[in-house]
Amino acid sequence: MNNSDEILKRILLNMKYDSRKTLSEQPVSAQPEVTITAKKQSNQSPKITSSEGNQNLTDRTIIDCKTGKQYVSPNFASVVPYKNKSTSEYIQQQQDLLAQNKANELTACNYYVQIIKDQISKKTGIYAKLSNDKIIQDQINSSFEELVYNCMNNSYLVVQNKPKGCTMSFSVFSKALENTGNQNPFYEIYLSYTSWFLTEYKKYQADNNYTPQAPYLIRSDMSYSYTDQGKVKKIDIEDLNLDTESKKLSMDSTAIGGFDLASHLPLTNDEKMLISQSPVSQNNEFIGGEYICLKQGVNYVNLRTTNEVNDDTGLLDPTDNFINWSSDEVVGKYISQKRQRPVSAFYNGQIRDDNTLLKFFKNIIGSKTELNKLISHLDTKGVSNEPAPGFKGKTIKDVLLTGNQKQKNYILGMGINNAIDFYTDELYKKLPKKYKNMLWYQVEFLNLQQDMHEGGLGYKYGWVREDNVQFCKKPSEMESQTNYTVEFLKRVPIKPLADPR
């Protein structure tokens, strides 16, 4: 089946729903929790192996499906990530649950729509007084099949709407359980969903005037849980205390970030030293000052020894100020800032023979709209009626309106050299960068940067330009591009896969 409508029709035909019976007489058994997990590949208990040197952290990192936050610990194991299901796979899963007479979204949506349609016809529940609410009107005007389809479609979207690669289940190792002789010293944590049948449907059974919430709204209520002495308990990962000396998983203020991860991993001293160079502390604060980061959407930034672009022009200029380029989110620790001295638009009293500059002038002069915008801007600045240097009896506006190409270029070049606000913001953005009064930041690099052209000479300090970077946001802020976990994982040496050859 390639079409969602066709899939739905097939579902409706195969559903175990008998219209001759009341809802309470329908055969359905609900589980306390509908838990979705992947089947384990082995019945053996997960084991954590330790060895000096590198270790693959794939099975030590989890991503919270509720918040999207990432955590790492040597006590994690058997991590099962969420995998998106196609429409047909999701439908098949629900049909399998239906065939086993277990709680499923197909039956839930069917029951829900039957209740809604019944209350609409009897004008009970929220339909006792017909509302102008769009959702209610859509329910009134839609057919039974349309409502079931919409319910299933929304349930599918809720299932799909999870952080990429988030964790469906994982194990937490307990040294205390191991010391007691437990053959499986792990707490198993699962992502589970609230059952519509045990919440909304149960309320409806107790009161037929109660209008239940849609199954997909209840489906979005998910939580992590584990079994403790036969009882299922919910848990928030960010509140999980991973003190393995404790026999139980405690829910207190000790968060996972309190671990000294470097000391728990099997790393050499050199590897631990590399990790200690992280600019972010375990408290999610930058260490010792402000830092400069790449702007969102920027892939890399050029690192230079001075606050300018000094290109190597050949034999007469055998060196340049270019060091290397960096793609690290955190470029370095902020030291100072300084504006570059722009290249003059003139050379020996004449406008430079620079194609990029001449093209910039041509685009302004060749467009009546752009030229009028510039003159209007100069009017507001009180500049347009000032005498034009070198043009007797003429103002700047006169030359821009009546002068020839060379004369207009001269005025536009003068504007570059003498006034940063001569151009509108829109035009200034289009000005070639070497003619701009750009701001540069001096930074202390996190590691020595090797010069690409000077025999590997290392630099501890350098300059980066404002169009590619910005001051880093605090690691604790949502908009931040980095935090302790991110910086830690960057520095953990990952054991490479063996060469299959």
Cα Rg: 33 Å
* Spatial gap, N to C terminus: 42 Å
Could you tell me the strand content as a percent range? 15-25%
Q: How many domain modules?
A: 3
Fraction of helical residues: 25-40%
The outline comes out as flat
- Mean residue pLDDT: 78
Major sheet = 6 strands, antiparallel
Enumerate the spans where pLDDT stays under 50 for 5 or more consecutive residues: 14-20, 28-55, 242-248, 250-259, 495-501
Q: Based on helices, strands and strand pairing, what is the structural class? A: alpha+beta
Query: Counting H and I runs of at least 4 residues, what is the number of helices?
Result: 16
Number of strands: 19
Overview of this structure, please?
By secondary structure, this protein is an alpha+beta fold. The protein folds into 3 domains: 31-38 and 69-185 and 196-231, no CATH class; 271-341 and 437-491, no CATH class; 346-435, no CATH class. It has helices spanning 4-14, 87-99, 105-122, 134-141, 144-160, 175-179, 200-206, 215-219, 261-264, 269-276, 355-365, 368-380, 396-402, 405-418, 425-430, 484-491, and strands at 34-35, 61-63, 70-72, 76-81, 167-173, 186-193, 222-228, 231-235, 240-241, 250-251, 291-294, 301-304, 322-326, 330-339, 346-347, 350-351, 439-450, 458-465, 469-471. Strands 1, 4, 5, 6, 7 and 8 form a 6-stranded antiparallel sheet that branches. Strands 18-17-14-11-19 form a 5-stranded antiparallel sheet, with no helix packed on it. α3 packs across α5 (144-160).
